[in-house]
Amino acid sequence: MDQQATGNPATGPATDHLGETGGVVDLGMPAPGGAFDEHHPPDAALVGDCVHCGFCLPTCPTYALWGEEMDSPRGRIYLMKEGLEGEPMTDSMVEHWDACLGCMSCVTACPSGVQYDTLIEQTRAQVERHHRRSASERALRGLIFAIFPHPKRLRLLRGPLRGLQRTGLDRALRRTGLLERVAPSLAAMESLAPRLERPERLPERLTATGERRAVVGMLTGCVQGAFFPGVNAATGRVLQAEGCDVVVPRDQGCCGALSVHNGREAEAQRYARRIVDSFEAAGVEWVVVNAAGCGSTMKDYARLLADDPAYAERAARFAERVRDVSEILDELGPVAPRHPLAVTVAYHDACHLAHAQGVRAQPRSLLRGIPGLELREIAEAELCCGSAGIYNILNPEPARELGDRKAANIVATGARLLVTANPGCLMQVASAITRSGHPMGMAHTVEVLDASIRGLPVSDLLPGTNAAPDAVSAG
């Protein structure tokens, strides 16, 4: 749609930007009657930055799957432009925006610096306010957000889930294929659940080993805390060994990442305020995160809470202190001795670590610092594994295709151990690797570092071992 910009009567004439679509983008408020209201619509100036060059296309997972222009970043930006110019929000528009994984691979690939991450989050918040989903979609999303951002509710699921796994009923149900036929999204949730072992105790404060080099707060997360407690325990041990006092606030709650990425703006802001309050009260120098999606959201709290006069400045200060665990360890430099681990490792870049946070070199550097470890790169590393927060539950079929594609590339490396930095990626890739029939070990970056620092055998990181790690020491 090519509609001449007319400007906003309240602000005067609009500034125009001519894009290669041939349309003129109004840099004022969205046109009346269009898809978007005036509360943070997709930023027209950012929309105008897209010159439709196509560099994003080979890095976009949905374009790679379907070859459909409207399921590429530039196609979705064109739909945003139409909405700004007065086109009403349609089911078709929403389907294309919903199909986006939000992996931000296009942000890395774009030579024009288009801030697609900001645009898709602004758009999804508008969708949540103005689009009426089907009853089944509302029920599924309601179930997800009634459980996943609530650590206590997730922990309550551990008992029943562990019971299913111990009795083998989960595998028996999977073999029947019944759940997949009746409720594909619930089947996806069941198949993604990791094998659960006993939870590890994480004290409220861990004391640095040797000379104290920093005082850090640690986010325990929702899914990470409930389903991967060993990752949190390993994070605490590694930070201790590298000279950090580690504070674990008990009242921290959810960071709001899932809510932000799915357009639930007000809910995300409530979670963010609680996190800011909690870590401010803890009096720490840095806030350390071991889940990529959480870290990218927390680093963006300044934008999320920019309209809140009570929190805007506090959120900006907080965001400046957030570090992925690999960043803080790389910045500090190693002091704890590394014991050899003779193992081949394929490192998978979690999208919200590599693309959203730009953290690529640090995890690799940490892994290469372990004697005997051989690091191998994965083909098509820029393509998402299909996890993308809750995407693999809302869109199980394309997520499965992407997971199987990622698994094939991982298996092709010949590595014995897959390492990544996000719980969603660990679940998604583990499920796909199981389907591939080529079992291999799965670990978070800090678990490998922890094994090296403690002198544990490589077998502890590979399939077929059930050794339970030691509890974390309070120092």
From TrEMBL:
Name listed for the protein in its UniProt record: Glycolate oxidase iron-sulfur subunit
Enzyme class, spelled out: oxidoreductase
Region (Disordered): 1-36
Keywords, alphabetical: 4Fe-4S, Electron transport, Iron, Iron-sulfur, Metal-binding, Repeat, Transport
Domain 4Fe-4S ferredoxin-type: 40-70, 90-114
Residues passing through the membrane, by range: none
Coiled coil: none
Organism classification: Bacteria, Bacillati, Actinomycetota, Actinomycetes, Propionibacteriales
Gene3D superfamilies, per the entry: Alpha-helical ferredoxin
Alphabetical list of PROSITE patterns matching this protein: 4FE4S_FER_1, 4FE4S_FER_2
Catalytic activity entry: (R)-lactate + A = pyruvate + AH2; glycolate + A = glyoxylate + AH2
Cofactor(s) required, per the database record: [4Fe-4S] cluster
Cofactor remark: Binds 2 [4Fe-4S] clusters.
Entry function: Component of a complex that catalyzes the oxidation of glycolate to glyoxylate.
GO MF entries: 4 iron, 4 sulfur cluster binding; glycolate dehydrogenase activity; metal ion binding
EC number: 1.1.99.14
This protein's record includes keyword Transmembrane: no
Organism domain of life: Bacteria
